[in-house]
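Dear colleague,

Following up on yesterday's call, I've attached the two folding results inline so they're easy to grep. Please treat them as preliminary; we haven't cross-checked anything against experimental data yet. The first protein's sequence and structure tokens come first.
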Amino acid sequence: MKIGLFDTIDPVPELKNPHVIVTIPPWLNAGESARLAVEYLEKLTDAQPLAKLSSPGEFFDFTRYRPTVSLVDGGSRLDIPNATARFGKTDSNDFILLRAPEPHTRSESYIESILEFFKHFKVKRYCLLGSMYEMLPHTRPPFVTGSASSQWLQNSIEVAGVVPSNYEGPTSIMSLVAQEAKKLGIETLSLVVHLPIYLPLPVDHRGEVPLLEICESLYGIPVPVVDVEKAKEENDQVNSMAEAFLKEHPQLRFMLTQLENNYDARIKNREQVRLSPEIEKFLQDMSRGFEAS
């Protein structure tokens, strides 16, 4: 069956007011934290393939999103980048887990087709999961910012520890999905975890765990103990690296204190605090130091 520009499995499953959990690779996927979170949700809900774009080349530039080759059963398999949806269930909710890369062309048609897909399944809620780097101290835990389409939902995520988002500036065309979904009466929600920019890890469970903790508050979904332990190990690793660097450059400890004060004020006041040029220089020095090590 075809829904908009999506080819679906046959027969199409019946879903009851599903909640869509969305990631937008490669945007908002710092440290692969958003990917880790949605992969866990796919596993937990026993998610099965539901749909994919019939002609992804109409929207994606394959010199920017590269196809990949895998060796399978003695042969090779070519995987072409695509927008894909899977469906899964828990005792309390039906879910659609959608991976929707940013389009390089025909953005309006792409977004219209996603919305048509939502309408077909009578989606109740759209929830974006993301991760990003920011000027944060490594000595403080990553935090999640978010916004919701209703005051009730906003209160629910803030009770779970989410800091209200007041971001203004450049964004992705995919932000239009939430804007248009709200017009259709769909609840909308965004959850973005923030990680230190100067201590990046290629795969960062420190960002995955806070996202899943919010999902636990919203849906009763348990946070995997093994990933919590991985996050602790990564945090210890990062702290060890940072301390070694700061011993070589003790003059930077004052800058780290400023960064910590900025973080504490932001969490307490629930608003963005402007960083000084000294803090930005501190981060640049830290980044160069770790790149050289």
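Below is the second protein, in the same order (sequence, then structure):
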Amino acid sequence: MDRNGKLKKNKGVDNDEVIKQIIIDNLDVTGGYKRESIYDTLAWHTIIFPLTIFRYIKWTALWYWRFAIQKEEYDDDAKLYLIRKYIGVSQMEFDQKYTDEDIDDLFERECWLKTNCATWKAERDAAEQEKMAQSGRYKRYKRYMKNAGTISFVDED
């Protein structure tokens, strides 16, 4: 950049291309699309499948040994795993969807126990339904579905 804040023309380099490349390199899209990688291919997963199976069996055996045979108390990681399992979300979804306050609430209510988690989930679903019932967009959608019915792609002759 020069003193006036304007981009200088470099010989043989297009400034728009440079800016585009900087934006692409620094773009962080969480939960969306990401750049393709060799690690996302079927060939890679086929190659590491035996290692994945070994790690899963090892983890399962260690879990069974620690918590079923030795009757250890659950640590925070084990509690979080059980909570994610009972809620039915993956690690990435859990990290994106739930805030620290939600996690503290889950720990206070001992949601690593299945019955407590089911109660918490029912309360949360009821609160979300109440929130949606108050939403104008949801009401409009319900009216549309009531009046127009479902959309059919089958030719009716």
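For the second protein, one point worth flagging: The CA atoms of residues 84 and 94 lie 7 Å apart.

Best wishes,
A.L.
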